[in-house]
Amino acid sequence: MLRTLALVSALFFGLTSFFSHQSLASCNSDQPFYGSASISYTPKSNFSKKPKPEDVDDARQQALLSAWNKYISTCMEAGRMQQYLARGSEIMGNLDNYILGKEISHKVNKKSKIVNAEALLTINQSLVDGLFIQASGGGDGDGAFMVWIFAAKQATYTAGGDTTIYDADVEKNSSSRSLKSDEIVEAQDDTTTVESTLSESKNSSQSSGKTVYRGTETTSVNREYDVVPTADFSIKMAEVLSLANYEPIDYVDLVNECGGEEPEIVEEELALNGKMSRETRKSVITAARDCEVEYLAIGTIDINQPRASGVEGYNVVVSINGEVLSLAKRLPKKVAAIGPVQAQAGGPEDNTAVRNALIMAGDFTANEIVSRLNAKGVN
User: Fold this and answer.
1) Does the reported pTM lie above 0.85?
2) Structural domains of the chain, with CATH
């Protein structure tokens, strides 16, 4: 049984308030998406102000599509969006297959002759992911070899920036003048002559100047970072890439077999500087070519300090940047760029929140790499 319009609206606002703290870069299968639509109608007869059944169905269908479009805009990054545009008609023709649950309700305003409809959907995210990765990698047989190096740093100390407000500079000029006059008055009586002096002083003054307003000065927030392990990220990357018919290779195995800079040095340069030095990058690429690796993914993960959360205990945000290089030719060719994009996750403890965020980041990064390569026909 469908819930009332008010209940659907209340459910939407309550759930979106919660799930907006879960993920900024990827979506969960239990995340709700809301849509609405309003259409005007012509009464079905002169004796009734009710809309025709097809008008009601149209409004409800438009609300459903609105919720689906909200899902697309929220959960699909550039690579996945390109794939969706290529297969959109196929998906829309079987939309119910990708929906785990839906609530649709409507109200009729007979006075204004408008049908207002609302929809709340939950999407089968796993099925959507499966649709887009089923034809990836190398096709039949062994897939393309892919090595990735993603280094992570976490803020261990944060000091807020300072704001200084300057007083206005005031420049003042002044001048004054005075005028003094003397008058002698003589008075005479029978016995005495008296001489007196009357003094009068007049003053005038004038001032001028200017005021210069200097505003404020704000210093940036200061943070200290540590390089942290990315095992959770890498395991999720390997899982997704394997399902997409790529052959994921650990960088440490590449170093063991074909040389290249040590993993600790590469990760420290990436994490703290945001890039490898020229010598390190050349060493990594040369070793990858010697091991016949076709694709090399390089990236950074920035992890903020976990914050206390009233919902899950702790909450943490990670930011991901990356690129995928094709090593088929002499000059490495950048075939995909990822980010910057953020993912957010929570957990009962601060370290759990960080692990969940890294897993989410690995899932998003791998799926976006696959989508970008598929959209460009790189399999």
Assistant:
1) no
2) 5-129 (3.30.110), 135-159+224-375 (3.40.50), 165-212 (no CATH)
